Amino acid sequence: xxxxxxxNLPFCYVRPEAKKHGRQNKIEGMVQENQxxxxxxxxxxTGKSSLVAVEALRExxxxxxxxxxxxxxxxxxxxxNFRKANVTLNTLSNYEHLLLNAEKSNFISSSESKQLxxxxxxxxxxxxx
Length: 129
Hints:
Elements: H1 2-7, E1 12-14, E2 27-29, E3 36-44, H2 48-59, E4 63-72, H3 76-84, E5 89-94, H4 95-104, H5 110-121
Parallel strand pairs: 3-4, 4-5
Antiparallel strand pairs: 1-2
């Protein structure tokens, strides 16, 4: 909302599912058919919930120009999901840069950086060893 306000542009919010009461909207805010929109997210892990929003906007006949996120873990599955959905994703920062800067500022050691980097490769099976 702050980005839209700062740029003096309309803002809408996309719910994960339509409300069960009231107007039962999935999209709240001022939108018009064929309008061009950019989706703004805070965090991208797999991209699944973000792409559900994109799908809802497309179903409402809005032109999704792309997505901007503050941070991404950089998981391969997210890259694949965005590619399949034909959505361009740009992020302000990512896990790789977080580790790089944490090591550079001596917040973590080189070995800790390598260990944390291995988590991103496969977090589901990571043991920390």
